[in-house]
Design goal:
The complex is a heterodimer of chains A (about 450) and B (about 240). Chain A has about 450 residues and is of the alpha+beta class. Chain A has 13 helices and 21 strands. In chain A, the strands form 5 sheets. In chain A, strands 13, 14, 15, 16, 17, 18, 19 and 20 form an 8-stranded antiparallel sheet that branches. In chain A, strands 6-5-4-7 form a 4-stranded antiparallel sheet, with no helix packed on it. A 3-stranded antiparallel sheet of chain A has the order 1-2-21, with helices on one face. Chain A is globular, with a radius of gyration of 23 Å. The longest helix of chain B is centred in the last third of the chain and has 19 residues. The interface between A and B is medium-sized, with 21 and 18 residues.
């Protein structure tokens, strides 16, 4: 048994063997990463025809590309001939890719364009194309693949998480864009620890004291009240979010200039006209969203971070982070966003190193998992309305993990209905959904 | 002693209306990858252009090197390019199978080609960054759009033109629907086609040639072999 989900006490525990066991790691690859939708990248990363990025997703090398016609393609990055990586660059622009091993060449649309000395293969040789990921789909610019050809469609899979992507994507009138530059780092810890950490409100004040000291120094004071005013929400299919009920604008990051504040207010005013107050009130709150199994989208209003977590071994993960921005924002807002991206989220920033140290400390502690076998994730189980500092969001994730790995279904928790704040909808989206499609 | 054995290009004249263009070609048998149209200044046909033509051949590109008159109007330059592409078409080269390299005046004309023809790829190589950048901005201001991925390689771009190139990069990123790249080499007052004894110029020359060839290799559509054509026909009929 990996999960102890006791509603009578109540108590929720995770067996620490899942953090160290190579057999569990193998099961995760087979049962989770082969049968879920996995994030590849954002469409805006491929702004021009023939742009490409190479990515590792679910342990597979992939080419994430926009072809000459502007279509998004995701190819297995392996030459159909003898298997070498077809593209060895992290990014670029190319209409054709040539394998450096034997020179077989393919267009970014997937067709073979040439192979040296083709006479030796004869006229009936079946010329292979590139192999696509079995399923590719996108939602609001977020592109996912699945290696399960029979998986449900992406929108169904995303369930309630789609609404939280909408809240983020609607922050731009022209479409949110990922800006150039990524954070890439590895952590000597199990990948699931960073999933937990990414929406663990409980650790913020203790582990990130140094960051909040910086904020206090920059602002003269710190209003931490926004941290407590949040809810943990089960979004279905293992996805969950901790969502702030009020603006966290004055909690995180360096203070905005007057000009920045004015522009922000104007931007929000325009968004209110487009989407209505209820939706923009929600938009102004912070949110930490985890889309099962390994996509994190964190919107602390000072910036939106997309984080992809890739397991390498039971005790080793790679992390890639991108910043998602409204491209129409002015210099002051962008400056604050970039500053926060670096000082809070950066691998050398004031917060991420704390998290890395905490996760690696956990992993070292798990060496004694046979003597001390269980980690506790019970916080908030007894409360009618768990907050972001509780752990409902992690339990939601673990129950889906447990269902996929063991086949055992653990029912979701019953809690009080969410506050009305969380039911606000965009009037624009409601209009679009009501209007007949052609 | 130069150890390289070079093929001497054949001279020819291309007639464009009432004007003529001096050009050089090398025809080889076998299956070359693509064609390269090299645009250079009037009077530049000689040892340097011969070296460029031979180096292009070594990369699998059938070269056509042509002298461009810098005093000709832009619309005449478009006619010049059209006529030169017709010369390549006589050899079976389709526009997408052609890469254009423009040196000197040819750098500006190559840019014009990127707006007027559906070519495989275009490279401009110049020591007059401000002039080419101004031409690019002028073209971007017009309704016509850039149709071909364009690489600009500029020598002698120390402080006075760094801002110009930065502006050009921003504008291209925003307004060019195709991929572009602008590279500046701080040193070197004149552009060496291939080589120079000065170490910095030599490094710039080597780097720019490498970039130009990679630009073409990644974008110029390879000419299909007979077997590839037969395969395509079979696929279309299935």
């Amino acid at each position: 048994m990996y999960i102890d989900d006791d509603r009578t006490k109540p108590r929720f525990r995770v067996h620490r063997s899942v953090m160290v066991d190579t057999e569990v790691f193998r099961l995760e690859k087979e049962k989770i990463f082969n049968h879920t939708w996995l994030y590849v990248g954002h469409e805006s990363e491929l702004s021009k025809p023939n742009d490409f990025k190479t990515r590792s997703v679910g342990g597979r090398p992939l080419i994430f590309a926009r072809n000459n016609k502007g279509e998004i393609k995701v190819w297995i990055n392996s030459c159909p001939h003898r298997g070498a990586l077809l593209c060895r660059e992290p990014k670029g622009n190319a209409r054709f890719m040539t394998c450096f091993y034997h020179g077989w060449a393919f267009s970014i649309s997937g067709e073979m364009v040439s192979l040296p000395g083709d006479q030796s293969y004869g006229p009936d040789f079946e010329r292979p194309s590139l192999t696509a990921a079995p399923r590719i789909d996108s939602y609001r610019g977020f592109v996912f693949v699945s290696f399960d050809p029979d998986i449900v469609d992406l929108k169904t899979y995303l369930a309630g998480a789609a609404e939280y992507l909408d809240l983020i994507c609607d922050q731009s009138e022209v479409g949110m864009q990922v800006i150039e530059g990524t954070h890439e780092y590895s952590v000597r810890a199990n990948w699931k620890l960073l999933v937990e950490n990414s929406y663990d409100g409980y650790h913020a004040v203790t582990a990130h004291q140094r960051y909040f000291e910086m904020v206090k120094a920059a602002r003269g004071s710190l209003d931490g009240s926004a941290l407590g005013k949040s809810s943990a929400i089960d979004l279905g299919n293992g996805h969950a979010v901790i969502a702030g009920a009020v603006s966290a604008l004055d909690t995180f990051g360096r203070p905005l200039s007057e000009e920045g504040r004015r522009e922000k207010a104007e931007r929000l005013g325009r968004l209110r006209q487009i989407h209505g107050d209820a939706w923009v009130d929600r938009m102004e709150g912070a949110r930490n969203l985890v889309i099962f199994p390994n996509l994190v989208v964190i919107d602390l209003t000072m910036g939106v971070v997309i984080r992809k977590i890739d397991p390498l071994a039971p005790d080793h993960m790679e992390v890639t982070g991108w910043e998602l921005v409204p491209p129409e924002e002015g210099d002051d807002l962008r400056r604050q966003r970039l500053d926060n991206y670096l000082t809070f989220w950066g691998p050398g920033g004031l917060a991420t190193p704390d998290d890395v140290e905490a996760l690696e400390a956990c992993q070292r502690g798990f060496a004694a998992f046979q003597e001390l076998s269980w980690s506790d994730i019970s916080r908030g189980m007894a409360k009618p309305d768990p907050s972001g500092s509780d752990e409902l969001q992690m339990r939601t994730w673990w129950r889906q993990w447990n269902r996929l790995v063991t086949g055992e279904r653990l029912p979701p928790e019953e809690h009080a209905p969410l506050a009305p704040h969380y039911s606000g909808r965009s009037i624009l989206r409601a209009d679009l959904e009501a209007s007949p499609t052609s | 002693m130069d150890a390289l054995i070079r093929i001497k290009p054949a001279r020819r004249t291309v007639v464009v209306g009432t004007r003529t263009i001096r050009a050089e070609q090398i025809h080889l048998g076998g299956a070359l990858r693509g064609a390269a149209l090299v645009l250079c200044d009037a009077g530049d046909l000689g040892p340097d252009s011969e070296a460029v033509a031979n180096d292009l051949l070594m990369q699998g590109y059938e070269p056509l090197v042509a002298e461009i008159d810098g005093d000709t109007a832009e619309r005449d330059h478009r006619a010049d390019i059209g006529a030169l592409l017709d010369v390549l078409a006589e050899r079976g080269w389709e526009h997408q199978q052609v890469g254009v390299l423009g040196y000197g005046t040819g750098a500006r004309v190559a840019l014009t080609a990127a707006f007027g023809f559906d070519l495989g790829a275009v490279v401009s190589i110049s020591s007059a960054a401000a002039d080419v950048a101004a031409h690019a901005l002028h073209l971007l201001d017009r309704p016509a759009v850039m149709r071909v991925p364009w690489l600009g390689l500029f020598a002698g771009t120390a402080t006075q033109t760094a801002g110009t190139l930065a502006d050009l990069r921003r504008r291209l990123r925003a307004d060019a629907p195709v991929y572009t790249r602008v590279v500046g080499y701080a040193d070197g007052s004149a552009w060496p086609h291939l080589d120079d004894r000065d170490a910095v110029d030599h490094a710039a020359s080597f780097d720019s040639w490498q970039r130009a060839m990679e630009w073409l290799n990644l974008r110029v559509v390879p000419r299909p072999t007979e077997l590839a054509l037969a395969w395509a026909r079979r696929q279309a009929n299935e």
